[in-house]
Amino acid sequence: xxxVTQTPSHQVTQMGQEVILRCVPISNHLYFYWYRQxxxxxxxxxxxxxxxxxxxxxxIFDDQFSVERPDGSNFTLKIRSTKLEDSxxxxxxxxxxxxxxxxxxxxxxxLTVV
Amino acid sequence: xxxxxQHPSTLSVQEGDSAVIKCTYSDSASNYFPWYKQELGKGPQxxxxxxxxxxxxxxxxxxxTLNKTAKHFSLHITETQPEDSAVYFCAAATxxxxxxxxxxxxxxxxxxx
Lengths: 114, 113
Description:
The complex is a heterodimer of chains A (114) and B (113). With 114 residues, chain A is an all-beta fold. Chain A has no helices and eleven strands. Chain A has strands at 5-7, 10-13, 19-24, 31-37, 44-50, 53-57, 65-68, 75-79, 88-95, 104-105, 109-113. In chain A, a hairpin with an 8-residue loop joins strand 9 and strand 10. The N and C termini of chain A lie far apart (36 Å). The mean pLDDT of chain A is 92. Chain B has 113 residues and is mainly beta. Chain B is built from no helices and eleven strands. In chain B, the strands form two sheets. In chain B, strands 2, 4, 5, 9, 10 and 11 form a six-stranded mixed sheet that branches. In chain B, strands 1-3-8-7-6 form a five-stranded antiparallel sheet, with no helix packed on it. The interface between A and B is medium-sized, with 26 and 28 residues.
């Protein structure tokens, strides 16, 4: 069964450092998403991406965040200067279509900022 | 924007009992309502979804009902099993390109044998 894969599974970084979280969406999907989940809290939308541009972003997705599809398979989330409050589980998801169709989630990257 | 409320936050049942989790949403434009199951250390996995053109959908032991007028939807799990133990999230979305899923806060379901 096709799946969304994320690397690394766990990343520890110093406050102020840049991190890049990587995702390989399902190959025939067109829409890509990043969500985050702070420990014990709900899953929160960060950004959606389609046709090489951002479709929608939340208030959380400020200038410290950026997304990119550097090649035909990877989808990345960059945090330029990490803060302690960026510590969370980050999930990548993809869907074949826009809203109203199944979004498949990856297993997540646990980001710990120290 | 959309806001999704989910209750209860925790639910404990005996194996074989039914479990019901309820969600309400605020944006009448939302028309897609998925339910996700999240097991420890894993990403959310879709278990069932419903669109606003139907009132109920069933898949084996799992069913979802939707009341558009009242803006609430519910997940029903019958004949619960220990492997149903997980965190369940409801979500709401509007059918348009790249739209976000807005999640509820989750319900931790514990099924004891």
